[in-house]
Structure formats: structure tokens, C-alpha cells
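Ticket #4471: structure export looks truncated?
Reporter: QA, pipeline team
Priority: medium

Steps to reproduce: submit the single chain below to the structure queue and open the exported record.
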Amino acid sequence: MTQQVLVINITRMGDLVQMGTLLARLRDEWPGVAVDLVVDRQFAPVASMLNGLRDIIAYDFHTLIEESRACVKDTVRLYQEVASWANELHERRYDRIINLTFNRPSALMADYVGATDIRGARSAWDGGTVVDNPWMAYFTDIHQVRRINRFNLVDVYAMGGSGPGSFAPLSVAAPTESTDWAMRFLSSPNGQEGEWIAVQAGASDVMKAWRPQHFGVTLARFSKHWDGGILFIGSPSEQDTIAHVIRTYREAGGRSAIKNVAGQTTLAQLVALLARCRLLLTNDTGPMHLAVGVQTPVIDLSVGHVDFQETGPYGPGHWVLQPDLECAPCGFDQVCSHQACKERLPIDAVADVMIHMVGKGPLPLAGLGYSLYRSGVDADHLGNFELVSGREDAVVAWYAAFWRRRWYESFTGQPSRLGELNSLAPDTSEGLACIRTMMPLLDSLCRRADHIVQLTGQTPLSVQAIQTLQRAQAEERQKAAHAGMATWATKPLTMAALRLLCQDNVQGLEPMARYHAAAYQRWRREIKLMASHFASAREAAAPSAIASVSYAGIE
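Actual output as written to the record:
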């Protein structure tokens, strides 16, 4: 019998393209699988160009949300309309639902449609939201650990929705009529098709867009080494930005031919154009992922709150320039007053990378203010980025490598093919001090949790005694959490523990008490394992490197 999978992905265009590896992995897991996709109506044209979908179910979620916010319809009527629309999906009896949209409405939809295996957000018994799959749960934590995260969202989707497997690139295919149109559009009057590069100078969020004047000067420098043309892409709202770029380009002596198709093509035509370009110079945008999907090399200018480790171009053949700033990338909830990252990417360096990518020059030498990364595939068949020039903070780099391996093995249950880390963490002393602070608190939390379990099983129920223990437990939990968030040695484990404690999707006082006790015990066990790793690294390190490190009170 053919397995059926429903994917819910109703947020952004880039998210749709980034699930291409998931679709390939599902076909490997279940040959002949039938995969359906729930998508917002405005992104249905993108979905139609993905490989491996049986059915695309489009709904105007944007209007639904607006009507809900404006109270155009009462809540009961809104739920009735969505339930009526989703009833057909419920009747299909899916084997698996993969919900890549982490909000309450999508969780309700996943639960309503129903499947024996739901991955991603689903509804709890009390109407809340829970996430069970470890990769999908990690997705909800990424924004808190983004400095040490080394998993591209493409791989998080694929591993969470399916599992480990061979590397599968993103894939987008334009229909033949769009491909023919693009060939004619880019041809000269005599019918000869020249060479082109594409540029997206704008972005949906101005925070993640490089300066228009920098684009203009960069392109002018590049044009001295380039005999082809420059194709500007983007949305209609980016016309002012593109005009600024072109004006600066001409003032700086740019000589290449220009075409501007921003807002003038269908998505299929845009994909076909990107497929015929030598490269795409871009901010982090949806079209960046479209270019990756048609195997066009990308130069990603990673500024603002963009983290290329999460959403950068996937697979081999791409380049990323990242500003060297302590605050880069900034958080999504931060308002930047200086945007200094946009001045840290040298114009000459960006132009030199472009010149190198079209075979006209070497890579730029390492310079101040930025780091250059090359995309690739690691030993676990996952996308990665290799530092080619620039610098990385030693503490961040060590923990990024450590947690990359640790999370992979924990979430998959398989050994990683990446090399072992035998060196001491640069902040070993700080990490051990944090663990020493946490361990007595975690011991006490576990004892109190066990005591609460005992009390909840007694008759009559001692409500006052339970509440007294819970108040003391809350104070200790706050102290343990505060200490645990202070270092990269303990922060990921602390975040996971707090999430686990909050997602107590169990009914009944005693079952809930047992669930919390197990969560506290897991937190304590994981912190002790971290201490054990430090001890193993100590034995492998030279004595002089650990002379000042004390392990008293941990082992």
C-alpha cells in the first residue's frame, strides 16, 4: 500500500524551496510515496515547480489571518470554514504529517487532519502546542543558539521529516514555455544569447539588505572584467533600490549592459532566468534559494539578522561574506541603531569574489572586517560552510563543532562521521564553574520532584505540601536556568530542559508529576555527561594545558 504524507508549509517562499531535500529523502525512505502539500495560495506557483508532490492544496491563509485579527468573522465561523476545507484531508488518512509551520493554527490543523505520526507542531490535549520530534524541537530552539548552530534549515526539515540519508540538492524546475521565454529574453537582436549575472539588491526586510550604493560600485568594478550583462531581479517594491544601484553603477563607470525585470516576470520565468545566469549576487532572499534550486552559484551577502548557517545557500558551489562583528548576526527581536555590518563588507572583496566565480581572477586575500565562507557537504552528507578567510571566535568555533556532532548523534541515534574533538574548550574553567553551580540545584530539583510524585500518589491529597514544594522548586529552577544559560557548555541543555518541562502534554496530577521528575532527571544527567566530556578531554590534553583547571565537586 502506498504511504501518504502531508506537508504543511504556509509561511515564506524560501521555506518551500528549502524543503526540496526533504521531498527527496521521503522518496528514499518510502519509494512511491504520495506527498501532498498545504501551502498559502500566493506561493502555490513556487510549489508547482518542486519535484515529488502529488497534490498542492492551496488556501488563502493570509486573508484568514487578517479576518481573524480584524474580527470580520467570529472565531466559531472561522474554525468551521477551515474545518470544512480540511475535512477532505482528514479523510485521506495520512501515514505522516510534517508540519513546518510552527504556530498554533497550523498545530490545530495537523491535529484535525490527523496521522499516526505527526512531526512538527501539533495540538496538546489542552489546546496548547507541543513538538515531539527532536529535530523539529531543535528548530524551535535555533534562534537561541544560532551562534553555535551548524545545521542548515534544509537539513533540519529533511532529518525531522524523514531521517538521515545521502546528500540531495535542492531542485526547482521551470516549465518549458518559461525556459523558452527566458532564452529569447536574454538573447541579443541577432538571436545570440550572451552571458548574464543576476543581482537582487533589495530584500523583503531592509535590515538584511546591503547598501544600494555598495552594490552599484561593486558592479562597476566587476564590469571591468565582465563582457556579459547584468540582470536585476526583485519585487515591484524594490524599484527605487534598483534605480539607486543603477545610478551609482553608471556614475562609477559601469559598462556592462543592464536589464531590469524586477516585478515584471512570473515566478516560473524568474526561475528560468536564474537558470541561465552565471551567478546571483544577493541578500538573503527567496530568489536566492530558487537560484540554488537551479544550480546557479550564489554569492550571499549575510548582513543584519540573517544567519547564513541557518538559511544560507545549500550545497556546494556558493560563497558567503559575513561581517566580523560581535553583534553579527543580531537577533530578530533587536532594533539596530548603527547597522555597522553593512559597512564591514568591502566592496573590492565582493567584486573579487564575483570575478573569481566567472573565472576571471583569484579569490581575494584575507582582509579585515569580514569572513569568507565556501559552501559544501560534510561527512554526514549535510550542508556546511567552510571558513576560507577571516576569523571565528575560538569559543564559538569549539562549541559549534562540539554541538554539531553531539546533536546529530543524539537526534539520529547514529554515530557522526565528523572528527572527534579531543581538545579542551577554550572556556573550560568557566564551563566547569557553571556546572559546579548547577549540580546542587539540579540534585535538589530532582529530590523535590520525586517527593511531589510520592505526594500525588497519596490519599488524601496533600495540596498544601505539594504547593510548598512547587514554590521552592520554581525558585531553584530559576537559579539553575540562570546559571545554565551563562555558558555554551550548558545553555543548549538548559534550553532543551526548560522546553521539555513546559511541554507537559499529560493529563492527571500524578502522571504530570512523574513527567516533570523525568525531565529534571534528564537535565541533571545531561549536565553530568557534559562534565564527563570535560574530564575525558582533560585526560587527552597536555598536562600544562589543564594545570589550572579544577574538577572538584563534579566527578
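Status: closed, not a bug. The export was complete when the record was re-opened. Leaving a note from the reviewer for reference: The first helix runs from residue 13 to 17.
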